[in-house]
Prior knowledge:
Strand content: 15-25%
Strand order of the largest sheet: 3-2-1-4-7-9-8
Distance between the termini: 26 Å
Helix content: 25-40%
Number of strands: 9
Number of domains: 2
Structural class: alpha+beta
Radius of gyration: 22 Å
Amino acid sequence: MSKLTREDILAAVQPKSDQLNAIDVLDGPITVTITGTAKGNADQPAVVQLDGYKPFKPCKSMLRIMKAVFGVEPDRWIGMQMTLYCDEDVYYGKDRTGGVRISHMTDPGRNTEHKLPKTFTLPISRLKKKEFHIEPIVATQKPTEPPPEPTVEEQAFIETASALIQAADSGENLMEIGLMLKEQSQVIRDVLKPIYAARKKELEA
């Protein structure tokens, strides 16, 4: 039986979808940059392409906000930034599914009527409205970069080092491995850090 790796966990929890879903931002908000747009279908008319992430297909409420702030010309959305988060209080029929919502946006200053910050009151059903508050993205706020994936060489090193860590039979041996890891890339250290810490705890028990 092979050892469970970080890559196995990431692959297992990755939603099998061609779009950004609520579960993708369940761990926390992400700030993204728009790289393009495309026409969708009747249910999801707009496809917003993002740098480093799956496309965002906004619901009608979010699309109305994007139109109000960014303007009606999709080509002018390119380069704009948004902070997306998981709103757990979103229902699909009777099921509570959660949804991707916008909390911050680049304010291009094109429409004084919708200058940020601003609260939009929009219909979410025939009988119900909801407030969505949008804050401006400040100049120092950087896009959230996806975690880097190990290269082929790094992955090979990770597998070898992981086996060495598990085989370490003393704190001294484990410390020698730790000194070796300090010379490796940040990607390698990030993957092996929890494995190292777990083995150290086992040896100290």
